[in-house]
Design brief:
This protein is mainly alpha-helical and 196 residues long. It is built from nine helices and three strands. Helix 2 runs antiparallel to helix 3.
Length: 196
């Protein structure tokens, strides 16, 4: 998360705990405190898009927050909150890509770029890939390495840094960096195989 004052971080955690304990007003007080960070996360995802992007970051933030409000979660801290927000944004973005693919009869789906995956896999540049194909490959990765899939979700869909991802997952930054590189390379190869 961005370098925010400790009191704000503590206030976010306090409000999450109150919200988890059933205080509906806590969610209302929480939104202004997390809104900028959620917009940053949404911008990171929207920037990954290529071509026709109909999903705007403000809509993505609002939809994610609305879905988060409906969750029955025993909140622990802000890292857990932002991690779940990343999952929600991914689901919303993939649902949007599927909707657009259906409306265009599959002629064009959202394209996203696996930043730097080409370096890891030995290629100079990486062409954008189908967002739905990426989602399927990520689900496959999660079936045998859920931690790596979680790192991809946080880094790619939420735009978290290595350090922020380490905070959310409880791993070391160096471990996150290694898993991020390996997962990107695996996804790149898997998606490339699907295009053959």
């Amino acid at each position: 998360m961005p370098a925010s004052p400790v009191p704000q971080s503590a206030e976010i955690t306090r409000l999450l705990l109150a919200w988890g304990d059933g205080d509906p007003a806590a969610a209302e007080r929480l939104m202004p405190l997390v809104y900028d960070e959620l917009k940053r996360m949404a911008l990171a995802y929207v920037r990954q898009g290529r071509g026709d992007r109909t999903l705007q970051r403000t809509a993505l933030v609002h939809e994610a927050f609305l879905r988060l409000i409906d969750q029955r979660v025993s909140w622990q801290n802000r890292s857990q909150f932002y991690g779940l927000a990343a999952q929600m944004m991914r689901r919303i973005a993939i649902d949007d890509a599927r909707r657009r693919a259906r409306s265009k009869r599959g002629s064009e789906v959202a394209k996203v770029s696996l930043d730097l995956a080409g370096e890891v896999a030995g290629s100079e540049s990486v062409a954008p890939v189908d967002a739905i194909l990426l989602d399927r490959a990520l689900a496959e990765l999660a079936s045998f390495d859920p931690h790596a899939a979680r790192i991809v979700e946080l880094k790619f869909f939420a735009g978290l840094t290595i350090e922020e991802t380490a905070e959310v997952t409880g791993a070391s930054p160096s471990g996150v960096k290694r898993e991020w590189a390996a997962a990107r390379a695996w996804l790149y190869r898997r998606i490339a195989e699907a295009h053959v």
